[in-house]
Amino acid sequence: MMKRFDTPYMADWFAISLRWVMLVGLIVSLGLGQQLDLSSAWTLGLLILWNLTMTALAGLNMRTTYHRRLNIAVDLILTGAFFWVQGGIRGPAFWAGLLPILTGSIYFEIVGAVIAALLFSALVVYTGFRLDGNLQLSAVIAGIMSALGILFGILGRRLMTHMRQNRALWVDVEEKKRAIQNERMRAIYELTSTLSSTLSYKRVLDSALDMSAAALNPNVETEKTTSDPLVGAVMLFNAGKLRIGSARRFTNADMRITFDGSEGVLKKALDEGEPVKFKDIGYDAELGRVVALRSCTSGYVFPLRSGFNVYGVLIFAHPEAEYFTTERTNLLDIIGRQAVIAIQNARLYQDLVEEKERLADVYEEARKKLARDLHDGPTQSVAAMAMRLNISRRMLAKNPSAADAELVKLEELAHRTTTEIRHMLFTLRPLILESQGLAAAIQSMADKMMETFSQRVVVEIDERASEQLEMGKQGVIFYIIEEAVNNARKHAAAEAITVRLRQVEPGIVLLEIADNGAGFDVKAITQNYDKRSSSSLGMVNLRERAELVNGLLNIDSKVGKGTNVQVYIPLTEDAADRLHNARRMKA
Predict the structure, then answer these.
(1) CATH class of 197-220+227-346
(2) Whether the predicted pLDDT of 225 surpasses 50
(3) Helix/strand/coil (H, E, C) string of 25-37?
């Protein structure tokens, strides 16, 4: 019956090693006595085969049932056979009995060595009586063997005691290492769980720092040790500057420092997108300003980056020069990557919240716009019709011929009001967009602008470009055009408005709404846009709708020179990356 163990037994390896030494000695003794032949060496071959078997089992960390007893028994039998075959006490290797004595001293210490010595001594006396007839010499050798059994038993006890102590120490060290590793894995698991369960920026940053400290310095002792002087901080980009989002051991003054990320270690980490280990923090162009870092001699910076998005950096520092070992930096890399994912999730959630609020504002503004349009258009017309009806009723009683002309005017007013209402319904939900596509919807809108407001709108649509647009994008683009055209009609007093849609490069479509009207100061309106003033609501709508199609809005206008509204619309994700990267390069 075999059993496999996780760790090797050092006692087995000691026994195997001593057995090999003894076998070499026996071979040398037989060689010197010129008795190294098959008649006397076959038992030696069995001993060699036996030790090879034990070596293979030890290499596999395997043991047999009653392994120690089996080793001593086999050693006694084979050694006794060897002793008998090679001539007993008269043979060149009469001292072969040391082999089972050494095995017994290793496996059973004094008891094993003494029992093995007594058994072999009995064999010596017996062979002396049967083979040599020299009982006196046999008794002397037996006595020596017994004394050696006691001596090697004592030495074996000391050796095994020392081995047990070393093994206990090794096991203790391994258990501590395993406990440290488990503690680190637990910290990483808690970090992952915490980061995946929260969408709060503050909690994400605090958790990243706390769990990093716990993973780097797990406390596996029963009593709390003094806190480690590890300094940590998360810096995030805000308005083009790196600002402290959360930190440990930073002073109040340190928390207020901002960084450009354009020099030293920060620049290297952000430019290369890879973690950086560094020394001599006090001499760094930017980090040298942080008081908490001046007592540190080593540091590690992990860039919080995903694709083209750079959120900031995770930075740690310590007074020990060799603190950031490969094991620790690997842990920080894992934590940094988890932090990036959590920050992305928190930012996406924040964007969703802002988008929800923005959509609520858009819907509210749409209701207000509809209310204004109804008040300025159909409501006024209906009120005028009611007043003209009252006038017509009085005129019918006093001057029927004049009443006929008034009724004609009333009919024209009713037709015009109907046209305005139909135009409003068209802009609210252009059914032609769903049935015939974007080009037909824009042309229909241009026709209605002429019919309703006598406003000339020239349409130049590349059919191939419009067909590449998704239906959802087509609806947004239609409302961008409708907003820009109405702005030009109401505020620019333009004679003609031109709408163009064409493909300017692979994957990118350009929408232009140009007019020859009064124009305006774009810079002044942009400042009002930040304050959401009434004069900038048109630009607000254009920018927000351009963002819905992941597009870029550009408005070129000068007072007295007309206005040109351009929206670059990407058709694919690759085109969107190229478009926005080109914008960042220009900025």
Answers:
(1) alpha beta
(2) no
(3) HHHHHHHHCCCCC
